Amino acid sequence: MLFDMVLASKEDILIVEDSPAISMLLKNYFEKLGYTNIHACNTGHSAIIVFKELVDEMKNPIVFLDFMLPDMDAHSILTQILEIQPNARVVLETATEKDDEGIKELIRLGVYQYIEKPIRFENLKSIMNTIENEQSFFEKDSDKTGSNIQEKNSSKIIEHLDFLLKSSSQISIGLMEQVLGVSSEFFSSYLEKLEKDGKIISLGDKKEIACNRCDSVKITQIFYCPSCKGSNFKLGKLLEHYDCGNISEEKTYENDLCPNCGKEIKALGVDYRVLQNHYICNDCKDFFPDLSTDYLCLKCENKFKLEDARWKISKSFKVLNIS
Fold first, then answer.
1. What angle do CA 193, 199, 205 make, to 5 degrees?
2. How confident is the model at residue 9 (pLDDT cuts 50, 70, 90)?
3. How many domains does the chain have?
4. Start-end of H helices in 42-100
5. Are residues 202 and 304 in the same domain?
6. Rounded CA gap, 261 and 197, in Å?
7. Which of 158, 290, 300, 314 has a CA between 20 and 30 Å from the CA of residue 230?
8. Is residue 287 in some structural domain?
9. What phi and psi values does residue 10 have, to the nearest 5 degrees?
10. Are 180 and 293 contacting, i.e. CB atoms less than 8 angstroms apart?
11. Which range marks the domain in which residue 55 is found?
């Protein structure tokens, strides 16, 4: 049956979606799965507030994040969520193709899973099953530290490794060790089998950024406004009016009139030009083609700049097909 999944413990769910229809669809589905603590927000600003409140209550909500909200994009929201909770599980929902560079960037930054719109219940159920399987794995082993970690049942290590590979396109030995909490000697023979079966391909050595405090390669980037250092930004289109030099968002040119001088703009390239893909800060209202960035360690929560990073080298693989 579609709704036959039973979870041992129900975590909070935060739906960040500006479409009331999709938000209600998700809420109804999660209720049928047995979830009761479901929160819904239709703006990025309100979502950040609710997420922080839940984390302050020692909760770890599963976030379903729309790609574009009225006040900010997923890039900005994800950055702020990861600053609050580096291990946050954020599921990106969008009609944009997974091969889109913007989507790839969000996945690299730390998006936990990706679901396409229109949302299909079987895909949604698969994601929730994956989350539950991972949660169960860590709960069973949460009391094991030090040498006891290396005594984990080998089948559980392989089970979690499969999950890790399924959610990756490329992955290094260093990251596998970091996530699984064991040395590669515990799964190297399994990787050799996968490579022999044509399910993964060796890409040779990969140099990765590592935390300058704990050496972890579980790293994500945190982006912010170069002017005010805030993370409340959105991606937008700007128009520059040649006559008066005004540069502002396209939507401020109501009825094709410049918001600064009131003159009508008529011909592109003559009266005005378009500045595509500029970031607009919702706090200081400044705009810029590129964001400033720091790195955040998902293990010890240390923030550092690229020039302060350590580097680690380990073998990497391209994942082709893990069934």
1. 80
2. low
3. 3
4. 44-56, 74-84
5. yes
6. 67
7. 300
8. no
9. -100, 120
10. no
11. 13-136
> DSSP label at 279?
E
Which range among 146-150, 190-194, 318-322 shows the weakest confidence by mean pLDDT? 146-150
Domain shared by 26 and 169, yes or no: no
* Residue 193 φ/ψ, nearest 5 degrees: -65, -45
Amino acid at 43: T
In this structure, the answer to whether residues 208 and 273 fall within a common structural domain is no
Backbone angles phi, psi at 226, to 5 degrees: -65, -25
- What is the tens place of the pLDDT at every residue in 251-274? 899 999 999 999 999 999 999 999
Count of all residues that appear for the chain in the document: 323
Closest CA to 219 of 161, 135, 112, 304: 304
Q: Are residues 46 and 100 both part of a single domain? A: yes
Read off φ and ψ for residue 45, nearest 5 degrees.
-60, -50
We report the CATH number of the domain holding residue 68 as 3.40.50.2300
Name the phi and psi angles at 240, rounded to 5: -110, 120
Same domain, yes or no, for 123 and 261?
Answer: no
What's the rounded Cα separation, in Å, for the pair 42 and 280?
20
Residues contacting residue 165 through CB under 8 Å, at least 6 positions apart:
171, 194, 200, 319, 322
* Stretch (H or E) spanning 270: none
Chain position carrying tokens 């169960």: 136
Give the tens place of pLDDT for each residue, 149-179. 444 457 778 877 887 787 677 889 988 888 7
Put residue 144 in one of left, alpha, beta given phi > 0 → left and psi -120 to 50 → alpha: beta
**Segment 172-217, tens digit of pLDDT:** 998 888 877 788 888 899 999 999 999 999 999 999 999 999 988 8
In the numeric block, which tokens belong to residue 273?
């030009």
Is the pLDDT at 146 greater than 50? The verdict is no
Given a contact cutoff of 8 angstroms between Cβ atoms, the answer to whether 229 and 265 are in contact is no
Domain annotation covers residue 101: yes
Q: Are 200 and 170 in contact (CB under 8 A)?
A: no
- As a whole number, the mean pLDDT across the chain is 84
